[in-house]
Amino acid sequence: MPTEANAEALAKGKTECKNKFAAERANAKRANAGQAIAAECSNAHQGKLATVRNLLVAGVLVLCLFIGAMPQLHAKDVNIVDFGAVGDGVKVNTTSIQNAIDACAKSGGGTITIPAGTFLSGSLFLRDNTSLFLNKCAVLKGVADLKSYFLKGEVVNFNANAGGLQQKSFIWIDSVSNVSISGEGTIDGNGAAPAFQKGVNAGDRPFLIYVCKSKQIVIKDVRLINPAFWNLVLFENDGVRIDGLTIYGHAAWNNDGIDIDSKNVIINNCNIDCMDDGICFKSHGNKLCENVTVTNCIIASNCNPIKFGTASVTGFKNIAISNCVIRPASVSNHFHWDRWIEGVKDKISGISGIAIESVDGGIIEQITISNISMTGIQTPVFICLGSRKKPTGSIKNVIISNIVATSVSLLPSIIAAVPGYYVENVSIRDMLVTCPGGGTKKHADRVIPEKERAYPENRMYGNTLPAYGFYIRHARGITLENVQFNLKTKDARPAVMLDDAHDILLRGFKGKIAPKNNSTYRVVE
Q1: pTM for the whole structure
Q2: How far apart are CA 116 and CA 60, in angstroms?
Q3: Whether pLDDT at 52 is above 50
Q4: With helix as H, strand as E and coil as C, how does 59-83 read?
């Protein structure tokens, strides 16, 4: 039998086992509870993550649907050879190049590159937000076929002298915005081709580039050569910048350099050598040509290097021209001034260095022209108010300053209007002119006819005038300050002749004394 001590030890052991078992059961319960709580938290967290994922996926789907509904505009640059253009000077690439332009525009805009080669084409139309870029050895050349050039836009009588309508162009920039032409390549109008040799003032010939009713236009650095008619025409645009152009136009009649009938135009750093007018401001429609600057240009012309008119329907206002050099043209294929005008001995010369003409009823106001050096010019300054076809307009508030000129004819500078009207408020300062001389008593005694409806040109009153420096008629408020004339040979005419001239100021004036009346100027009562 177990002793009492053994009984106590056994009871104690049973108690310890019981307590240990109870503790193990309690620990197991706590562990199970913890696992349950962890599982519950994990499930809740996973549920929240799933919710977030679902929301993100839904958002992405909505965004994709929204983007898919938007127009797909991914601007893309193109090369015309990728559209089948061949630069061999033989294939006509009009369709290929136009397809490249249209594809570029459809993608949202970009650059159309013309690589090295000679690419023949007919009329091309640039679109919104496109840039035509010509590589250095690229030539975009007009095809010698009048049927390849299209008419477009409203009818504008650009060729009133011939009675013809001129709307054709090689490159069209019409009613678009944010368009440019750039690069060191060449745009060649092929104007010497027989198809374009139609004579002076003939219509149906294309301009080289026609910019019409457009905004934010830039044309820079390219060479424009051999136009069939005018080179670069700006009509009723708002915001044009022309920079660094080289223009050569002696292939056909009427090869103007740049014709401006627009507003807010900047022209810089151009080198122009052309058969007809160099930089010519025109007014064909019912809008002013205004807010224009021209600076740092070299201009060579067989006609008028800087000209306002002849077209002068509405007029010109707020225009500044500065820092330009005028020189004789490189060739004269159509004009022979030395044969046609008495006193002109140079084979090549320009007509009027600065010509300001209102003959169609328009106004000319707030014009400044400064820092001009000119050689090879028959008449340094020609200002004419006439009545060609419409009511007489006006010319007033003009300042011309810092002019150095060498003239080559018996035609002096001219300021003239028609009876009953006056050129007003013209100030000419700091002008130095070297004149050829050679005027005779017969020239000094000439009675000058009125030419109210004549085409405005320095020789409209004849090939000589009764003064060698300035002939001023029907004018008032004219200032000649620090103006000097030097003669190469003797001249029987006075330096200045005033006829129906009022409020005239001559200050610091210097010229040779005419022997007839022992005076440098003559006043006709």
Answers
A1: 0.84
A2: 47
A3: no
A4: HHHHHHHHHHHCCCCCCCCEEHHHH
